[in-house]
Specification:
Layout lengths: L1 H11 L8 H27 L5 E6 L9 H16 L2 E5 L7 H10 L4 E5 L4 H10 L4 E5 L8 E6 L1 H15 L4 E8 L2 H17 L4 E8 L8 H13 L4 E5 L4 H11 L2 E5 L11 E7 L1 H13 L6 E5 L6 E4 L10 H16 L10
Parallel strand pairs: 1-2, 1-3, 3-4, 4-5, 5-11, 6-7, 6-8, 8-9, 9-10
Antiparallel strand pairs: 10-12
Helix pairs in contact: 3-10, 4-5, 6-7, 6-11, 8-9
Length: 353
Amino acid sequence: MLIMVTEFQKRAAPLLPCTSTKKHGEIILNIRICITIFIACFALINIAPAATKIGLIYDVRGRGDLSFCDAAYAGAKKATDEWGLKLTEVNPGQSADTELALRRLAKLKYDLIIGVGFLFREPISRVAADFPDVKFALIDAVVDAPNVASLTYRAHEGTFLAGVMAALKTKTKQIGFIGGMKVPLVEAFEIGYAAGIQATNPDIELLVDYVGVTPQAFDDPAKGKELALAQYHKGVDIILAAAGASGLGVLEAAKSMQKLIIWVDSNGNHLIPGQVLTSLIKGVEISIYETIQRVHEESFTGGLKDYGLKNGGVEYIIDENNRELFSDEILKKVQEFKEKIIAGDIVVPHERE
């Protein structure tokens, strides 16, 4: 580049007007300054680091469930906006496409690839082994690999408290639970919920239904609504929906029947103000935000990252949309149970005996 500058100066010099040596020198100086600025800008363009690339891959439904997937997106969007990172969303639509999507982003050398849901466990396990220099995050499941952060949540601790709330609020002494796919992960919601109800009032009846046994069970609002209407007609007055997008059908049923519903994974209190008893936040949003932050700060580590009541990774929401549903006495009782769980005095079950 220095040779190019010298040649430019040599060629430019004869073209300069010969008014005076002083003026001639000023023009040469100006040319040198302009060329120096040009070289500096060119160098900056070439050494500027490429933007960190974050890939967010959904399974089954993807965004629009007002719950699990939307919470994942919220965490990723907040982090990438804050630090000016590139966010790419992928919704394969079919589980058969999941591994292909992971491999495509890995080949493009994405800095972090996030699999939203336990269905990514096997695909990420294989792809992470083939791309050891790529960082991965897995939600709701565990892969034992140094380049995979496994984000898990003690949702059963939150549903225990939801069970306490429901038991203190029910008028019919009949409470419902509707899960999406019948797998241990979702059953943990039910088991914690049942434990909270039992600890508060063992005389209450809990009705339980699952939408199905395949991943499609998380994306069947019509079936969710059908199951919810059946429970409400049987006398249930509060239903906890842990069903992904199928929960949207439960929401419709609650609205039409003027009954209560408990939302999960994101704050849905505003969806039907006064009819959403509470929302249980499973820290999907904050865990993804923190994982992206670690990548940005070059402090990422693989391994298990467990979120529960103790570290704020699971929480129930009381706000202007549902505060009037609770007396101070009920909230005090719920807080007492929460403190006992955090202290270890109550160990909430999450597996069937």
